[in-house]
Amino acid sequence: KEIIIATKNPGKAREFKRLFDDQEIELKTLLDFPNFPEIRETGKTFQENATIKAHAVMDQFNLPVIADDSGLKVDALYGQPGVHSARYAGDHNDAANNAKLLSELGGVPLEKRTAQFVSTLVFANPKNDQDLVVEGSVNGLIATLPQGDDGFGYDPLFYVPELDKTMAQITLDQKNQISHRGNAIKKLEKLWQDWIIW
Ligand code: ITT
């Protein structure tokens, strides 16, 4: 039995592989298919974009597919970068995105730098008429300086007050326990085996 995770993002791929390590399922990602064409994410919501990705990949492989569309919502920026998180500063460049976020928040005090990571997962399967959709989130604060080397994307700036650490200062397993994606995957794990028609 095989499931494809419709992501080219190595950070996401690592988190999925760690959480979804059920021995009887072979998990692949788009990193295993480097020639898979770019998917245009034209949706206005995480769910629309995750649906676009899941179905583009399912149509190609005729296999069950999970897509994650995720991002960072910053309250002081009225929810931005949101669905534009990957390309906030232009190209998909984590360092440039983090620099832009810090500059947009220049002068905003820490207590007003509240933010949320959100992950919407869409599970599509050729034999199921309807997709399975779940969402996970985690609250934090945008730090004034990046800290930590683990994770990806905005993790060095996403400070979790309960841990007194950023998402880039904790292990992959710790991140999976508390993160938006970890929370969404845990919801999916409770549902998908009863839903899927093999
Ligand atoms: P795929 O579409 O191939 O999955 P992507 O990185 O383009 O990869 P998204 O369109 O969902 O995926 O963009 C999500 C962006 O949000 C991601 O590139 C990061 O900038 C940010 N992000 C999402 N989850 C994150 C996390 O766990 N840690 C840090 N940043 C995250």
Automatic annotation (TrEMBL):
The cofactor(s) it depends on are:
Mg(2+)
| Catalytic center residues | D69
Q: Does the keyword Magnesium apply?
A: yes
Cofactor detail note = Binds 1 Mg(2+) ion per subunit.
**Which reactions are catalysed by this chain?**
ITP + H2O = IMP + diphosphate + H(+); dITP + H2O = dIMP + diphosphate + H(+); XTP + H2O = XMP + diphosphate + H(+)
A GO molecular function term, named singly, is: nucleotide binding
| Residues reported in the UniProt entry to bind Mg(2+) | D69
Primary role? Pyrophosphatase that catalyzes the hydrolysis of nucleoside triphosphates to their monophosphate derivatives, with a high preference for the non-canonical purine nucleotides XTP (xanthosine triphosphate), dITP (deoxyinosine triphosphate) and ITP. Seems to function as a house-cleaning enzyme that removes non-canonical purine nucleotides from the nucleotide pool, thus preventing their incorporation into DNA/RNA and avoiding chromosomal lesions.
Looking up NCBIfam families in the UniProt record yields: PRK14822.1, RdgB/HAM1 family non-canonical purine NTP pyrophosphatase
Can you name this protein?
dITP/XTP pyrophosphatase
Record organism: Companilactobacillus suantsaicola
